[in-house]
Design a protein that fits this description.
By secondary structure, the protein is an alpha+beta fold. The protein has 11 helices and 14 strands.
């Protein structure tokens, strides 16, 4: 086995492998040639085999998986290798190129525009150059570099792209536009670097791995050309930091954290931002699960904080559950009322108040002349009863059709769940077995109560009867006892007619005294 080197070729076991520089003239972005993707057109610098200096050739990317697309004006290394048509019978070859040469040590671009024009201008064969040399006129460096050429006109050159600071053992991938991936580690701080790392040892040891993906650095405008810079989790456009116990301090975007602190979901602060972590920072973070769910699990807690608001939308349901407590507010102590039970309790209260009004309206007292008549203000009780009946019929409008709560953790029992599913009508009012059928007319449960105008007319008529009763009482007070009995009998008839009118919701005036 032998290895022979010369400036342009490497001869290995009798086979010649040659590399030569070439300036990129154009790049094929069309993709029309499926067997020649990522092809570039370049001009050779220096003779190569049958190719002469400045010949234009086509070359394909040497690596099929990792590519760095060159721009016009950059210098690449080109070699020959078998083509897709090579076989044992015939060796078919074509040109392949590698990554651009780092002429300017720039991560942004390494173009040397006009290199293909400088050589012929300043070669010994150039008559003007030869005559100037004979006359003692030298060639200044700036003149040799001033060709009036620029790099790729379609390449937007930027002046805010800088290389990132390397550390011992790092593997760095840097793009042209200020993005990078660092496969680094916890750095031994005894060694001095121009830019010391922004992450510290934290809870780990020197040599612990760290991965930093950064997109869009924002160095100071006064930073000199090609000065090393560092990734910055607070200032980079977007970044992902994957740590192994390192200490990485950042500035929280929201400072409103009373609940997070009260429930001690702030271990990242207590352990000085150290520990194994994945940190994502940007101006906006979006998770979009197009077909499946987004699931988050946590051993200690989940905390969200916003300077404005937090919104949760669920087209079908938004559900919360806890084995101990769901708190709306920090350390909330006032319980939420159960809607269905509260409505039933209010319904019972209304029924009892209705019964109370009816009992008072029927109340009589013994007197020296016999049982007393109905209360003078019986109209007030009848009106109150009507109002309570209206409130009772409105109870089913109180419960929410959107928000529901459980009495205990774990959800409702099977019986309660089935009962809710079997409910035919949207009502939470249950029949009260404590009342007899006559105490609570079915029409009240259904909300079919007398019209308010009918109630007013009944009350007006009853007041007229009260005045008439006073006149009758005055006339009968001086008559014999049998006349008093007749008067009381007539009063009783009036009251009976009034009660019948109330129960039957009579639309006509039922209190016709018949001229009595």
């Amino acid at each position: 086995m032998s290895l022979v080197l010369d400036p342009q070729k490497t001869i290995f076991n009798g086979t010649s492998y040659e590399w030569f520089p070439a300036e990129v003239i154009d790049v094929d972005f069309s993709g029309l040639n499926k067997e020649g993707l990522y092809t570039v057109i370049c001009r050779i610098h220096g003779a190569f085999g049958s190719q002469t200096n400045y010949d234009v050739i086509r070359a394909r990317a040497l690596d099929a998986n990792i590519k760095r697309i060159p721009i016009q004006g950059e210098i690449i290394l080109v070699t020959k290798a078998p083509s897709p048509y090579a076989s044992a019978a015939a060796l078919s070859q074509e040109y392949y190129y590698t990554n651009p040469i780092s002429i300017q040590s720039s991560v942004h671009h390494n173009g040397l525009p006009g290199l293909r024009d400088m050589a012929p201008i300043f070669t010994p064969q150039n008559k003007e150059k030869r005559e100037n040399a004979q006359d003692g006129i030298g060639n200044k460096v700036k003149n040799r570099l001033d060709t009036g050429k620029i790099i790729d006109p379609n390449f937007p050159e930027r002046y805010d792209v800088y290389p990132i600071q390397p550390y011992s053992g790092d593997i760095l991938f840097e793009g042209r536009w200020g993005q990078s991936i660092r496969f680094g580690s916890t750095v031994d701080e005894r060694r001095q670097y121009p830019q010391p790392p922004s992450w510290k040892k934290g809870l780990g040891d020197t040599g612990n791995p760290i991965i930093i993906i950064s997109n869009g650095t924002n160095p100071k405008s006064s930073t000199p050309f090609n000065e090393f810079i560092l990734e910055n989790i607070d200032k980079d456009d977007s970044s992902i930091w994957m740590t192994s116990a390192q200490y990485v301090k950042f500035e929280p975007a929201s400072k409103f954290t009373p609940s997070i602190e009260d429930k001690s979901i702030n271990l990242f602060m207590k352990n000085e931002y150290g520990g194994n972590a994945v940190m994502i920072a940007s101006d906006r973070i979006i998770f979009n699960a197009r077909k499946q769910e987004i699931i988050g699990f946590s051993k200690e807690g989940i905390g969200f904080s916003s300077e404005k608001g937090i919104s949760l939308d669920g087209k079908q349901v938004v559900e919360f559950e806890s084995e101990q407590k769901i708190s709306l507010g920090i350390n909330a102590i006032s319980p939420i009322l159960l809607g269905d039970r509260t409505i039933n309790w209010l319904a019972k209260l209304c029924r009892n108040l209705i019964f109370l009004c009816e009992s008072i309206a029927k109340e009589t007292h013994p007197t020296g002349t016999g049982p007393s008549g109905a209360p003078i203000n019986i109209g007030d009780f009848i009106k109150t009863k009507s109002n309570i009946q209206s409130l009772l019929s409105d109870l089913d409008t109180l419960p929410s059709q959107l928000a529901f709560v459980n009495e205990k953790p774990g959800g409702p029992s099977k019986v309660e769940k089935q009962k809710a599913q079997d409910r035919n009508e949207p009502t939470y009012i249950e029949p009260d077995e404590d009342f007899q059928a006559g105490d609570q007319p079915p029409s009240v449960i259904k909300g079919d109560v007398p019209q308010s105008a009918d109630i007013v007319s009944l009350i007006t008529e009853f007041k007229r009867l009260q005045e008439l009763e006073g006149e009758i009482y005055g006339e009968l007070s001086n008559k014999p006892t049998d006349e008093e009995a007749e008067r009381e009998k007539k009063q009783q008839e009036i009251l009976d007619r009034f009660r019948n009118a109330e129960n039957n919701d009579d639309r006509e005036n039922p209190l016709d005294l018949g001229g009595g």
